[in-house]
Write a structure and sequence with these properties.
- This protein has about 190 residues and is an alpha+beta fold.
- The chain has two domains: about 1-20 and about 160-194, no CATH class; about 20-160, GOLD domain (Jelly Rolls).
- It contains four helices and ten strands, in the order H-E-E-E-H-H-E-E-E-E-E-E-E-H.
- The protein has helices spanning about 1-15, 60-65, 70-75, 160-194, and strands at about 25-30, 35-40, 45-55, 75-85, 90, 95-100, 105, 120-125, 135-145, 150-155.
- Strands 2, 4, 5, 6, 7 and 9 form a six-stranded antiparallel β-sheet that branches.
- Helix 1 runs antiparallel to helix 4 (about 160-194).
Length: about 190
């Protein structure tokens, strides 16, 4: 029983510590006509970023209920991920973009843009294979609002995807069931021997 429990605890700790990622938090605003840039320190050939934004955003349900004409009239914040060419620590200008992720559009509230009011939103932005070694990743944000848009940005580089997390959880749960069944069998055999 001790070996089973020790093995289960070992794998639980390994799975808890595996792929533990640092969450980076930024508080900022995007001014009208400005593109806000956040350089990501990543050397991977593939990149996915879990982005969580809190600010004056409509709920996802309210945004999904809107028709196309309503969506065009509302103020928006657009978030995307880019791979850009650079040499050393200085990025080359102009036309440095190599690849752009699918843009994530978030509808802003119609009233006063206060980051304490609104809805937190999240999405995973991804880029595929990197063709060159002299590339950097940049998370970019811009808004169509005519005033500054405050927001809180949290991002996690290469988050654990849902299918892998479910597999890990199933393995841990199966191990726990084996320990419970083994303990019940041992307990019943001890009771019958008396």
């Amino acid at each position: 029983m001790t070996f089973l429990l020790a093995g289960w605890l070992f794998f639980t700790l390994v799975f808890l510590m595996y792929n533990e990622k640092e969450v980076i938090v930024r508080y900022s605003t995007v001014n009208p006509g400005e593109v806000k840039n956040y350089m990501l320190n990543v050397s991977d050939s593939q990149l996915s970023v879990l982005v969580r934004l809190s600010g004056p955003f409509l709920t996802e349900q309210a945004q999904n209920k809107m028709n196309l004409t309503d969506l065009e009239d509302y103020k928006k914040m657009v978030v995307w991920l880019e791979r850009v060419t650079h040499v050393g620590s200085v990025m080359q200008e102009p036309n440095t973009t190599e690849e752009i992720s699918k843009p994530w559009t978030i509808i802003l509230q119609d009233n006063d843009l206060d980051f304490r009011e609104g809805e937190p939103r999240s999405a995973i932005l991804s880029l595929k294979l990197n063709s060159t070694n002299h590339s950097a990743y940049v998370l970019r944000l811009r808004t169509t609002a005519n005033q500054s848009t405050p927001f809180t940005l949290n991002y996690k580089i290469n988050p654990l995807d849902d299918s892998t997390g479910v597999i890990y959880a199933c393995i841990l749960l199966f191990g726990l069931y084996v320990i419970i069944i083994f303990e019940v069998i041992c307990f019943k055999t001890k009771v019958h021997k008396r």
